[in-house]
Write a structure and sequence with these properties.
By secondary structure, the protein is of the alpha/beta class. Helix content is about 50%, strand content about 15%. Bound molecules: BIS(adenosine)-5'-pentaphosphate and magnesium ion.
Length: about 220
């Protein structure tokens, strides 16, 4: 069973790898960032609550985020594995997920952590373009779509995320080091942790991840 957490700082390549992993292993991609952005686009009550927080680079409350993930992980399509991207992001979220796993019969069994130095994160995020429909990520110089401005996966017009600006990114990085990086120790302690160097290039990184997932299957 592949019940996976994919973690790493903003711009590490979580979304990029996630799309390839779900296509190869046929498990659902649960990205809390994508779920919040979808709620914002639809103007739901959740979206209205989350909009200003996300655009400024802050973290949505643990209570809201845990509730959202609990509901999503309980869906039937998660029975044969899942890939969490961007959750958990704080120790209380990790504790809640640990408690929730056995309750819903779907405990996490692998944590993949992709590390990338800050200067490279800034470079990646400032050149990123994303698909508002399927969430795929591109880069204006490194990972161009086949047709400029258009998503290869679903054909939608690419956009720049509202939180991909210098000020919000500074806050996102601060939050990462203060709240999310402590999860490395947490998952090392649980014996679930696997580290990956995110600087090796997206194809080589995917090959390394696939090898780890196949060994765990
Ligand atoms: P979220 O959407 O999760 O954003 P994030 O963690 O900041 O990560 P990103 O999506 O920016 O980066 P990524 O690692 O997916 O990189 P990507 O593959 O796109 O969260 C957004 C917000 O939602 C949060 O700030 C928070 O407000 C809220 N939120 C979400 N979850 C929450 C939670 N659990 N609790 C509280 N709040 C929450 O790649 C980046 C760029 O690099 C792209 O241009 C790509 O083409 C390029 N690239 C990728 N891989 C490579 C490579 N190997 N080499 C060169 N370039 C590469
Ligand atoms: Mg992402």
């Amino acid at each position: 069973m592949l019940n996976i957490i994919l973690m790493g700082p903003p711009g590490a390549g979580k979304g990029t790898q996630a799309k390839k992993i779900i296509d190869a292993f046929h498990i659902p991609h649960i990205s809390t960032g994508d779920m919040f952005r979808e709620a914002i686009a639809k103007g739901t009550p959740l979206g209205l609550q989350a909009k200003a927080i996300i655009e400024s680079g802050g973290l949505v409350s643990d209570e809201i985020t845990v509730g959202l993930v609990r509901e999503r992980l309980s869906q039937p399509d998660c029975a044969n594995g899942y890939l969490l991207d961007g959750f958990p992001r704080t120790i209380p979220q990790a504790e809640a997920l640990k408690a929730m796993g056995p309750e819903i019969g779907r405990p996490v069994n692998l944590v993949l952590d992709v590390s990338v130095p800050d200067e490279e994160l800034v470079r990646r995020i400032s050149g990123r373009r994303v698909c508002p429909k399927c969430g795929a990520s591109y880069h204006i110089t490194d990972m161009k779509p086949a047709k400029e401005g258009t998503c290869d996966r679903c054909g939608a017009e690419l956009i720049q995320r509202k939180d991909d600006n210098a000020e919000s990114l500074k806050t996102r990085l601060e939050n990462y080091y203060a709240s999310t990086a402590p999860l490395i120790d947490f998952y090392q302690g649980e014996g679930l942790y696997h580290h990956f160097d995110g600087m090796v290039g997206h194809v080589a990184l995917f090959d390394q991840i696939v090898a780890t997932l196949k060994a765990a299957q």
